[in-house]
Amino acid sequence: MAVSDIAASDIVETVPSALIILDRNLNITSANRAFYQTFRTSADETEGCLIYDLGNRQWDIPALRTLLESVIPHRASVEGFEVEHDFPTIGRRTMLVNARKIFRPGDHDGFILLAIEDVSEERAARKESKRNWQLTQSIVDTIRDPLVVLENDMTIVTASKAFLTIFGSTEAETHGRRVSELGQHQWDVPALRNLMEKVLPENKPIENFEIEDNFPGLGRRVFNLNARKISQPGNHAHRMLLVFEDITGRKQRERDAQVLQNEIAHRIKNNLQIVVGLIAYEIRATTAVCIPGLKAMQARIGAIAQLYDLLSQSSYGQSVAVDAYLREITKTMSASLLGSQSGIDIAVEVDPLEIDPDRAVPLGLLVNELVTNAIKHAFPDGTGHVVLSAKHIGDEIELTVADDGVGMKDKVVAKVPEKRGTDYVAIFVRQLGGRITTPSSQGLGTTINIRFPLFLVTSGGAEPLAA
Amino acid sequence: MMAVILIVEDDPFIREIAESMIQDWGHRIISASDVPEALIHLRSSQHIDALFTDVYLKADVHGGCDIARQAILLRPLLRVLYTTANCITDQLQSLFVKDTHFLRKPYTEEQLQGSMESLLAA
Question: Which of A266, A273, A312 sits opposite B14 (nearest CB)?
Answer without folding.
Answer: A273
